[in-house]
Automatic annotation (TrEMBL):
SUPFAM superfamilies, alphabetized: Purple acid phosphatase, N-terminal domain
PROSITE patterns: FN3
Protein name listed in UniProt: Fibronectin type-III domain-containing protein
Ranges where the Fibronectin type-III domain occurs: 126-219
Lineage: Bacteria, Candidatus Kaiseribacteriota
GO molecular function, one term: acid phosphatase activity
Organism: Candidatus Kaiserbacteria bacterium RIFCSPLOWO2_01_FULL_51_21
Length: 362
């Protein structure tokens, strides 16, 4: 802005940014003077507040923002208020006409060169397709989609509306994505949970889904029992016992217990055991073994480790008590007893019917 003269002060003495439709995108012609709109695209600035020594800032309003052409050329121009309302300034007799004059110039190398500063704040994401899956007695997964990259948060509790829950829980993943998945763990069994999904974009604009709900299952007790005797001979390689196999849910913790009845006619009667589970599981188990009401041997097994040799009585079945826990990984799968002779012998080692395994969700 190089100069201004504002004698008239009747409420129409302002500068307004409006849309324009010039004939050319690169040159101005005489016919362009009236190819302008009247609707304000920014804040109006009163001529009394116009500065000639620095930039005057016009900030796009919602109308102006909606007229931005993101994949083309956006055209704006300026109009003086009397021109907008088609009302000439008052002229006082005697030759002292009230005047409003504004002149602008583009002068390279000066502080008055026109400039455009665009600050674009990405709008809040749009959340869709909110779902729950993999609901167990202690966990659930909430998934949803957004139209732009944003982070993931689930706010949940056992009271509706969820914001009134006490305690109120949150699970967050700061990874920016359009496909969101948040796992909720350590939930109470047989409980109804209410939740909302929240996604925030890098500009800090957030969207919240409508409230959803799910109900965890009651704590499950799984049992399997061996129905026939099974023997092996001349074999020290652990094999899975298909009758002593439990199918466990993903992302779930279980207490494990069981009893193995074992017998052998071998000259060196013994057995070794271990456990196998789906990838990602954490296994901690142990055993006590004995016969005749006395337990003489025990061992703690970490992970899928194989036990030491467990001695078997030559005169009566040996009882092997199993105790421990397992935390499954992200996939449903089997937890299975494996066993074999520890010392290879032609006389067989037998795991007897009535042996069992049990898993209880915790």
């Amino acid at each position: 802005m190089l100069a201004k003269q504002n004698v008239e002060d009747d409420g129409n003495d302002y500068i307004r940014v409006v849309t324009t439709t010039p004939a050319s995108n690169t040159a101005i012609t005489t016919a362009d003077y009236d190819q302008v709109g009247t609707t304000s695209q920014t804040n109006d600035i009163d001529l009394g507040n116009i500065t000639t020594s620095s930039y005057n800032t016009f900030t796009l309003n919602s109308t102006g923002l909606s007229n931005i052409i993101v994949d083309g050329i956006t055209k704006f121009g300026t109009r003086e208020g009397h021109d907008v309302v088609n009302s000439a300034p008052t002229v006082i007799s005697g030759g002292n006409g009230n005047q409003i004059s504004v002149s602008t110039a583009e002068e390279s190398g000066t502080s008055q060169d026109p400039k455009l500063i665009v600050v674009h704040a990405q709008p809040a994401p749009v959340i869709s397709n909110v779902q729950t899956s993999n609901v167990t007695s202690s966990s659930a997964t909430v998934t949803w989609d957004t139209n732009i990259n944003s982070d993931s948060k689930v706010t949940y509790g056992t009271t509706t509306p969820v914001t009134s829950s006490n305690p109120l829980y949150e699970q967050t993943d700061e990874t920016l994505t359009t496909n969101h998945s948040v796992n909720l763990s350590s939930l109470s069994s047989g409980a109804t949970y209410y939740y909302v999904a929240v996604s925030t974009n890098p500009d800090g604009n957030a969207a919240t889904s409508t409230q959803g709900s799910f109900t965890t299952s009651s704590a499950e007790v799984l049992r399997v029992r061996k129905t026939v005797d099974e023997s092996t001979a001349n074999d020290t390689t652990l094999s899975s016992d298909i009758e002593l196999s439990l199918t466990l849910n993903a992302n779930t913790s279980y207490l494990i217990d069981g009893v193995i009845f074992a017998s052998s006619t071998s000259a060196t009667p013994d057995i070794k055991i271990g456990f196998d589970a789906v990838n990602g599981s954490v296994i901690d188990t142990g055993y006590l073994a004995g016969s005749g009401g006395t337990f003489r041997q025990g061992e703690w097994l970490s992970g899928e480790a194989t036990s030491s040799a467990i001695s078997i009585s030559a005169t009566e079945p040996t009882v092997i008590q199993i105790h421990g826990s397992v935390r499954t990984g992200s996939s449903l799968g089997n937890f299975v007893l494996q066993w074999a002779q520890n010392t290879s012998n032609a006389n067989g080692t037998t795991v007897m019917k009535g042996s069992y395994l049990r898993a209880q969700e915790i």
